[in-house]
Amino acid sequence: MEEVKLYYDEKAKSYDETFDMLYFKVYDEITWRYIEPYVPIDPNALVLDAGGGTGRWAIRMARKGCKVILMDISERMLKVADKKVREAGLQHKITVKKGDITKTGYADGTFDMVLCEHALFLFKEPDILIKELNRVLKRKARLVISAQNRYVQSLVCLPEKPSSNKVENAFKILLCEKYNSMTKDGKVKIYTWAPNEFRTMLERNGFHVEKIVGKGVTMPLRISKEVFMKKEYPKDLFNKILHFELTLCEKSDALALAGHLQAIVYKL
User: What is the SS3 string spanning 9-73?
Assistant: First the structure.
């Protein structure tokens, strides 16, 4: 994980700026819609934000009433998170902690909920992580976790005017003959799963799957990159895209179209 740590240390100062673009504004709204109902409001409840980075979700969850442990491997991301937590006046609710989320160090059954948002794609051996998250959860407690969809990852690797080499590369991603893909700067490997693989992985590690929703169908599959990367856009456009996306979220057979998969599961 050293390359991951270094990557996010470099990205820390500008990381949150990414989420100002249209794509992530819609993505975040969907994500919170399928996190918020499961966040405990009991002030004694404890939530683990696994790979929580700059605290984007920890702060929202703590405002619901629970206590949050924000754990991440990047010191610089956590430095940003700590500043944001202090500015929000939530030091009494959020503990910012450096650590490897595959080896949290917490006792069995510690947490009332675990969130692992936008972190699973970094793990070559995801079962190790999911087993650990299962271990530290209380029985019947929920894990909300997201993964990147291999089908869409392979499709977005196809340019509008593809060469035979680029088609072959996308095909290898589709068949999982390689680690799947890389970040745009080529510094970190990205691991992806087909929807059924994601479900099976969660089930074999002791979880019951309540629901899996697909996040990000219109972007990038249909709406162009030059549009969805904009940081200024009509509010009406945002609302209509969000409505479109949320409608697809409730259609189980639309999962294969989504760039990201978000599962709500509980420990057996």
Answer: HHHHHHHHHHHHCHHHHHHHHHHHHCCHHHCCCCCCCEEEEECCCCCHHHHHHHCCCCEEEEEEC
**CB-based burial label for 261 (10 Å; 0-12, 13-18, 19+):** buried
Question: Which domain covers residue 207, as residue numbers?
Answer: 2-148+193-267
The pTM of the full predicted model, rounded to 2 decimals, is: 0.93
Q: Which residues contact residue 174 at a Cβ distance below 8 angstroms, ignoring those fewer than 6 apart?
A: 150, 151, 154
Q: Hey, what are 177's tokens?
A: 């003959």
* Residue 207 C-beta-side C-alpha neighbours within 13 Å: 31
Residue 197 lies in a domain: yes
In this predicted model, what pLDDT tens digit does every residue of 44-77 receive, in sequence order?
999 999 999 999 999 999 999 999 999 999 999 9
Q: How many helices (H) and strands (E) does the chain have?
A: 11, 9
pLDDT digits (tens, 9 = 90+) for 186-209: 678 889 999 999 999 999 999 999
Q: How many domains does the chain have?
A: 1
Whole-angstrom distance, CA of residue 157 vs CA of residue 171: 9
User: Would you say residue 175 lies in a domain?
Assistant: no
d(CA 222, CA 190): 22
